[in-house]
Amino acid sequence: MMATGDTHTSFCVLPWIHLFADEAGVMSPCCRTVSTGETNIDGDTGQARRVDHPGGILAGMNTPAMAALRVQMLAGDRPAACARCYMVEDVGIRSHRQDQNARWAKDIPAMLAATHVDGTADIVLKTADLRLGNVCNLRCRMCSPQSSRLLIPEFATYHDVPRGHAYFDRFRRIDWFEKPDFWAELERAAPSLESINLAGGEPFLIGQMFDFLERMIEIGAAGRMTISYNTNLTLIPERVKQLWPAFKAIRVTVSLDGHGAVNDYIRAPSRWPVIAENLRYLDTNADALNLRAGLATNTAVQLLNVFALEPLLAFLLSELTINDCPNLSIVTHPEHLDVRVLPPRLKAQAAAQLGDLARRVAAGWPHAAPRRDTTTLVAALTGIVDHMLAADHSHRLPEFLRWTQTMDDARGESLASAIPQLMPLLATSVAA
Known about the structure:
Layout: H1 14-17, E1 18-21, H2 56-60, H3 64-74, H4 83-90, H5 96-103, H6 108-113, E2 127-131, H7 152-158, H8 169-172, H9 180-188, E3 195-199, H10 207-218, E4 226-231, H11 238-243, E5 249-255, H12 261-266, H13 272-284, E6 294-301, H14 309-319, E7 327-330, H15 344-362, H16 375-390, H17 397-411, H18 415-418, H19 423-427
Parallel strand pairs: 1-2, 2-3, 3-4, 4-5, 5-6, 6-7
């Protein structure tokens, strides 16, 4: 066992128990580390380690990069890869690191005992988080072709290159999740796996995922596994109704960034009435669908929706009965959508609006809603304000405007029509 030092501000259980693969199959310590660019580097090739590389999943979790990250954590240092969690903690928001440490607290002594001086560890895989490629039916404004290949034309226009440019080849055919060998390797890890999160792209479009669930039922592993999803909920496949009841529990987290026209503008070509109907369906049929692990939503708070959170929160808190308190996450990439890009006058307006909303939520708003612990939501609203006011990134406003115009032209949409609160951006200088 390694000496741990003071690890309470830096330690995270995930490098010991967790498999993460992004849309391209590249391994990282977890989903929150992706935006840092600190991927899991293969010691033999010096390239980013892929989940389908020779040697298998467990070898990929003991690369020199992963070993070094564990050493840093156990010394009480903050690895650069984990900057996102530390950032939100520093503004008072509970982080993914803190949630996972609490969830797996009883297993931490065994993890430390199985860790060697060089940072390698005897891995017992408990959880997996797989982004199943970039097959998606949406073109969300904060995403890239890595998350949805449908965005390639708009990115090509923005960068003034042909759609057939070689740069986009890496996104046209991401297929690691179609390979039988990968799923066989994951099945070999099944005896210790307790939970698997599946995202995309859009995971409900991936047939191989459903085939894997069927296999888990066949081998008797389903009853001790919790399966969770990050989905845009534009569709609910029939196969979920057949497969989900066999598992220990199912959890669905819906990516939802606005109410009504704001949703449709950010997450084209989704349509709010369809999303709302599907949310109500999950809420009403939670028992039959085995949603014992919960129904949740995540909102990527960004420049486009910072003035439009109240209608969404009112819907989620009032109309759904079993869902968790809405989760708000702060967008820092792409950088032109970070709320710190707002010019000072609009920042002041957003801060006042969010501060008022936080106070009302703390007082029980909306009063007709089923009671929930809203402590985390209040902290998130306050943390968004702190983050927004902590730095001036208004130099990126021209980039935001050019990117928005590119998408508006391609989609026949209008920022002014969809989100009128942002109309001042179209006529103001950065110094406004």
